[in-house]
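Teaching soon. Got one?

===
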Amino acid sequence: MVKVYEINGVRPVVHPTAYVHPSAVLIGDVIVGPRCYIGPLASMRGDFGRLVLEEGANLQDTCVMHGFPGEVTIVEVDGHIGHGAVLHGCQVKRNAMVGMNAVVMDGAVVGEESIVAASSFVKARMIIPPRSLVMGTPARIVRALTDDDVKWKMRGTKQYHDLNVRSLQTMREVEAFTEPEPGRRGIDFGPDLHKPKT
């Protein structure tokens, strides 16, 4: 069961087509839109400002969303937030990506179809133009993104759209096996998703 908490009479909203892992925590003024994926141990703490995930966005394992009173922290349509990222009082525009362990601070705007590299620190009020790659601590604009860069990002986001469906349909709590069963199969990702190079 999803951990959802009301505070001051304000209760989270989760669209029925969204998947929220049972170990994630949603508090207060949180709005999760259609087809979103929220991973294990993610925290959306809407006890001050509003937190919004728009359609098809994902918030992966151990991510944190929070903001100051009266602010809206938002991940727009198809936004992609990598493992361990922290979003505080910022905007992540449509089809943008924030890499693993990156931090995006108050008033910052990650432009449409932009990518924040892993472990980057986006300072408060930084405005990242559309289709930009930013990296570093503090983050700086490195270059414009190519069509291939954006297609690569969109393929990754589609994997999370598919994971949303797979999780809603097949994820359940079970007892672990004590050893691998004979002929153990792996996860079938289908022909469209990229696989590790050998």
User: Anything to note?
Assistant: The chain has a mean pLDDT of 94. The two ends are 38 Å apart (CA to CA). Residues 1 and 82 are 23 Å apart (CA to CA).
